[in-house]
Amino acid sequence: MKIKQIFSAYHFADNEGIKNIRFCPVCGAEFRIAAEGGRERPVCPECGFVYYRNPAPGVSVLIIENNCVLLGKRAPGSFAAGKWCLPCGFIEYNEDFLSAAVREVKEETGLTVAIQSIINVNSNFLAENLHSIAIILSARVIAGTPAAGDDLESIAWFDLSGSLPEMAFVADQEIIERYSAQKIEGLPVDTDFLNTLKSG
Ligand SMILES: [Zn+2]
Fold it and tell me: Disulfide engineering: 147 pairs with which of 110, 189, 193, 194, CB 3.0-4.6 Å?
């Protein structure tokens, strides 16, 4: 099976949507558009702040037990509500990505996990204003009672030998299918520094 790491659910137009970002978050002055670092960006005429628009880094967690994968059904009001996904979420600024993965799984499933490896990294162009970089990690459950929370309304185990429910993210579907076919072990992670930054 071919490795795929870039997923686009829409026609990506450079800097589309940035026109909605009008005011400097530092001083409140109205941005003007100016050439900066090789492309046009919002620049503050008062304080010089440049708005660099970057994809949002997130984590997705592949948890397999007894040949079943743990998925969550996305709650009303969330992106792609009603469809299913791996436990996932965005990394907070004062949080390392491994701690973010442990936190997101705990919030969304009630389970405490140990992160094991990096399975893949994906660019997900999900919508005009939603471009994420997802680090897909594998983990195993070490404690807890399953209970859906946060962005998920329910969680369930799906047998890898059966069919998956309707998935919110094509990247999740691809990684699960590739894992099923190839049993990827991934790169081991260094958990010595987990939670050494203050999170929250
Ligand atoms: Zn400013």
Answer: 110
Q: Residue 94: which residues within 8 A CB-CB, separation 6 or more?
A: 197, 198, 199, 200
Grouping H, G, I as helix, E, B as strand and the rest as coil, residue 41 is strand
Residue range 69-88, pLDDT digits in tens: 999 999 998 888 999 999 99
Q: How far is the CA of 89 from the centre of ligand 1 (A)?
A: 30
pTM score: 0.86
Residues 6+ apart with CB under 8 A from 173: 164, 167
10, 98, 185 from 135: Cα distances, Å = 21, 10, 15
Please give the distance, rounded to the nearest whole angstrom, from the Cα atom of residue 32 to the centre of ligand 1. Answer: 10
